[in-house]
Amino acid sequence: MYPKTERTTAHRDRGRIGYQRAVVHAILDEAYHCVLAFTVDGEPRALPTLHVRVDDTVYLHGSTGSRPLLAARGTDGLAVCLTVTLLDGLVYGRSQFHHSANYRSVIAHGTARLVTDEAEKQAAMTALVEKVGRGRATDSRPPTRKELAETAVLALPLHEVSTRVRMGGVDDDPADHDLSYWAGVVPLRLVPGPPEPDAGVSAPLPAYLRPAHSPWLTAAPMRGEHVILEPLDLSQVDGLYAATAAPEVWQHLGNPMPRNRDDVAAIVAEALRAAHRGDRVPWVQRCATTGQVVGSTSYYDVDEVRRTVAIGYTFLGQPWWRTGINTEAKLLLLTRAFEELGAVRVVWHTDIRNARSQRAIERLGAQREGVLRMHKQRPDGSWRDTVVYSMTADEWPSVQATLRDRLRRGVPVAG
């Protein structure tokens, strides 16, 4: 517990005030920015900035020329008030008076000092980088001496600290409960969107920027003798464009044939957005012998409760058709679905015009279930009838044995 002081003692809504060290630390660690308040020449100032907590000290990032950093150079340091707020929801009351918000906040009073020790400064900068992504400090260039000299860091010891928290529902007056207005809480949360790489970035997306999903929605790397499946990434666009630049590849797919690299990048970006939403699990296919990117495939329509998944969004460069690559890729995907995820049913959907795809799915051992009429539109605007195939967990053992035998004998099944 932090000690209660005159400045941290509440004068109203005392039930919302707290001093628990663990709660203070949790709020500071979850929040990415804070507001630092101080006075300059008798006038108030408030500076939004980045922060990180290391044990019982909060470090704040700034420029060596900023006012608080200049003021903190003195031997007495800089008197500050630090605030952090996490907004968790909007509370709608039946009366305007009882509209409110759910939130968690920290207020810290104290004297901030300028960090001059080079080792402490470097450690604080590393901690700031690690806060935005664990492992990021080793995945980026360290600052140069010139950059360190241009960057200032303030240290605020956590001594005089309190939390203020509002949780729960509407606090309307009982006399208003019969009013015919909607009342309740709209939850709010900070959710990262799909990462958007800078121009020219060729490095794959780091693991710490990939959304945390259940195993059903995770593109786990898989390797066979013919094919390697890796999580799809924008760094693979050039390879996909080069491998699939043939009209036959795109003839029955949901996208028109890409005209250039940017069109492929848009297809990959959409797949990654769907993956971020949890709607798809996309992989890139590489030749296990050469490492060359040759195509892509995905899980979709994932239903963890009903234990079903579909395999599709597959496109493969024409030179690798009727080789072991697509057959083994399907074997890897089926093995993961049935044996690792515990699926009871795997599904395929294909255009009724795509006879080659239907034959390939049937050679895998899937059973044709029927046709969904006018199921979706093709790129040319016509309506597509979709053929549905499935395979069940009961059928999987014999299918697996057959696929492995055909791969050993070099007889392609799918593709």
Automatic annotation (TrEMBL):
Keyword Secreted appears in the UniProt entry: no
Example of a GO MF term: acyltransferase activity, transferring groups other than amino-acyl groups
Superkingdom assignment: Bacteria
Pfam families, A to Z: Acetyltransf_3, Pyridox_ox_2
Keyword set, alphabetical order: Transferase
Statement: the UniProt record of this protein carries the keyword Transferase: yes
Listed InterPro entries: Acyl_CoA_acyltransferase (IPR016181), GNAT_dom (IPR000182), Pyridox_Oxase-rel (IPR024747), Split_barrel_FMN-bd (IPR012349)
Domain called N-acetyltransferase: residue spans: 227-394
Identification of the protein by name: RimJ/RimL family protein N-acetyltransferase/nitroimidazol reductase NimA-like FMN-containing flavoprotein (Pyridoxamine 5'-phosphate oxidase superfamily)
Phylogenetic classification of the source organism: Bacteria, Bacillati, Actinomycetota, Actinomycetes, Micromonosporales
